[in-house]
Request: fold
Amino acid sequence: MQRLEQKRTVPMVHAQLPLIEELQTEAWWTDVTLEMLETIRRQQHMNGF
Reply:
């Protein structure tokens, strides 16, 4: 994910920066569920990632 942050000028990456940054925090991963991961996976698939 940190490599994606370096590509801030790419429109698709720039649009997802808040999520990219959030996913890098320990707080997000505390008590993460399979449903949460699947939701992120589906959103990113729909966005072309």
Notes: Residues 2-46 form one domain.
